[in-house]
Amino acid sequence: MAPATARAPSRRDGWLAGLTWKGIALVVLACVVNGTRRQIQGFSETPLLEWLGATAQTSAWGLLIALPVVLAVVATWNLAPRRVWLRYPMLALAVAGASLVGVAAHAVAEAFVECGGKFDLCYDEPWTVAVLRSWVRYGTLCALFGAVYVYFRIADESAARALEAERGRAWFVQKMDEARLRMLQAQIEPHFLFNTLAHVRRLYQTDAAAAAAMLENLMRYLAVALPQMRASSSTLGREAALAESYLAIQKIRMGRRLAFAIDVPAPLREASLPPMMLLTLVENAIKHGLAPLPEGGSIRVAADMVGSDLQVRVADTGRGFTQSSGGGTGLANIRARLSGMYGTAGRIALSLNAPRGVVATITVPHVAGDAAGSTS
What we know:
Strand order of the largest sheet: 2-4-5-7-6
Radius of gyration: 36 Å
Number of helices: 10
Shape: rod-shaped
Number of strands: 7
Helix content: 55-70%
Order of helices and strands: HHHHHHHEHEEHEEHEE
């Protein structure tokens, strides 16, 4: 399924989306700075408490003008049509109207607080003229605020769209990797199955006990593998069981040329691990490391925690690095899937084993596997 969609917008999201406490704090700070600037000349001539009260009152008058403009600009940006020739004129009208309302409210409040409600005592000119003069002055500042808000809002929305596009791309890449993996499984599984059954048939003619053991291991392998064919996630325990069944089958085919050990602590067996990655590393270790050597070698699968990450290692004592080491289809598929699922937090690394061979290490963030069995 596609990435989860956002929740349905609420009324606040529709009207006031983009209005944050940080933004409100910046508006309040701007009003306080402006109020302090207007009262700074009287700082040395007025008692401190009186000066602080006058500064607080001047800042409050500024807020009385600023808050209607803030609400009007935010609401208009969210609700206006997205067409530029409509949106920006509506923003200009919103700034003009809200600033006029704010200036008028400021004039009324100032008249009642400082002049007992008598406008003529507060101004040396008709109060309507004084209001219009203040409207021009404060309206210019409010228009500047609106322009800054629009600039940052456009930047935020562009960044959000880019992030959503990147998430969509990563999800698409992950699904493509899973589809390619299933296609490879569809091609590889019948080949492995038919070869194993043919080997069982030949063994029954020469060594019935070995044939029965191989058939039992094949059944164990299929019991783990078949339920995961459609799975988009798995657990380390399931993948270790799958690898163990596969190695047991190969052990019967290769005899003394193959020795193996699985060392996965019980607390880590429920950790989430993408399906088929561990098996791919085990197959590579046999195909490119041990099979070319007449004496064969050993494979050890181990897992542990490194900080908050889960590390799964497949170490072999095969022939070591060759010209094609690290460049096969299986390893390329693992790299692409890890990148799509975990970004830089998921990775695979190859290193030398001592005294001979290769160690392939998968590192992924440790996640409990309670949802590891989900299917796509």
